[in-house]
Amino acid sequence: MVKCSATFVGCFVSSFVFFCILLCETGAQSTVPWYENLPAVAMDYKVHIDPGKEDCYFQYVNPGATFYVSFQVVRGGDGMAGFAVRHPSGQIVHPYQWKPNSEYQDQTSTGGYYSVCIDNQFSRFAGKLVNIYITVVRYDMWEKYTKEIDELNMNMENFTNTIVTVDRNINDILQYQHHSRAREAWDFNLLQDNNTYVVRWSIIQIIVIMATTAVQVYFVRKLFDIKTGSSRSRI
Asked: What is the DSSP string of the chain?
């Protein structure tokens, strides 16, 4: 029983170590945020800073991108707070200043996580509502997207021209079919009229022939008709 317990503990420790290693590998793979490949990112936050506290926020910036951050105290206390920005190298690029608003911009960043800190330590009793606006712009990606959009516009123009040509051809075919149907209807009506004409005159001619035949038979029989009364008186 002790042996089984030791085995179980050993398995548990091994599983725990493997799980920790897996978490470390996953964390190492996910150090880059999901918006890394976006040409521009803009974020707007409203945060509440408690009295006598300091809050820091971290923003990843791609190498070569333009980083911009600004803050403004919306309400609370004297309407001012401390604002500082720390470079990914650890250097404070924007020292603390007690102001109602401030901003910082790095035109060409070396890349990494910037630290943006809001300090409310000088206000012991009043909290502050602060608006933070952060943008990360990659102009090289914008140029790439612009080229792709231009190519897409050219492709769309070609596609539009092709669609217009196909639509024009379809309209021509529809017009041809319409004329063909109209011609077919005209020919069909002409055939019906000719058929009616032939049938009518054929019936009339048959009636005339039958009437003529009946009259001829009648008169021929009249020629051979012998009156018996007149012949006896002559004898």
From this structure: -HHHHHHHHHHHHHHHHHHHHHHHHHHHHT-S-TTTT-SEEEEEEEEEEPTT-EEEEEEEE-TT-EEEEEEEEEESTTS-EEEEEE-TTS-EEEEEEEESEEEEEESS---EEEEEEEE-TT-SS--EEEEEEEEEE-HHHHHHHHHHHHHHHHHHHHHHHHHHHHHHHHHHHHHHHHHHHHHHHHHHHHHHHHHHHHHHHHHHHHHHHHHHHHHHHHHHHHHT---HHHHHHH-
Taking the C-alpha atoms of residue 117 and residue 86, their distance in angstroms, rounded to an integer, is 8
- Of the two residues 171 and 98, the one the predictor is more confident about is 98
pLDDT in tens, 118-135: 988 888 888 888 888 888
How many angstroms separate the CA atoms of 181 and 178, rounded? Answer: 5
**Share above pLDDT 90 across residues of the chain, in percent, rounded to a whole number:** 14
- Read off the pTM: 0.50
Burial bucket for residue 139 (CB in 10 Å: 0-12, 13-18, 19+) = middle
Tokens 């002409």 sit on residue: 190
